[in-house]
Amino acid sequence: MTENKKEWDPCEEGREWAAAATETACQKIAKRKGKRLVEIIDTKNNPLRFICILEDYPDE
Predict the structure, then answer these.
(1) 10 preceded by cis ω (within 30°)?
(2) Cα–Cα distance between 9 and 49 in angstroms, integer?
(3) Residue 59's pLDDT is what?
(4) Which superkingdom does the taxonomy of this entry point to (predicted)?
(5) Of 1, 36, 37, 52, which sits most exposed with the smallest number of CB within 10 A?
(6) How far is it, in rounded angstroms, from Cα 49 to Cα 42?
């Protein structure tokens, strides 16, 4: 989990993301979408406190 130094802004985020209530939910979202979970940002805002940063798996 990453501690957020400045407030996260969805308009400035260039990566694919999703909001979730728990860190475990981030993992489930990534698995469901077939993506790799690269970062979890704790916004400390309820009810969807965590921002899950996702990316495609690299080509093998």
Answers:
(1) no
(2) 13
(3) 81
(4) Bacteria
(5) 1
(6) 6
CA atoms within 13 A on the CB side of 59: 0
Q: Are 44 and 11 in contact (CB under 8 A)?
A: no
- DSSP per residue over 1-60, as a string? -B--SS---TTT--SEEEEESSHHHHHHHHHHHT-EEEEEEE---SSS-EEEEEEPPPP-
* Torsion sign over Cα 27, 29, 33, 36: negative
Contacts 24+ apart (CB under 8 A), 11-14: 13/51, 13/53
What is the model's pLDDT at position 5?
A: 56
Classify 40 as helix, strand or coil. strand
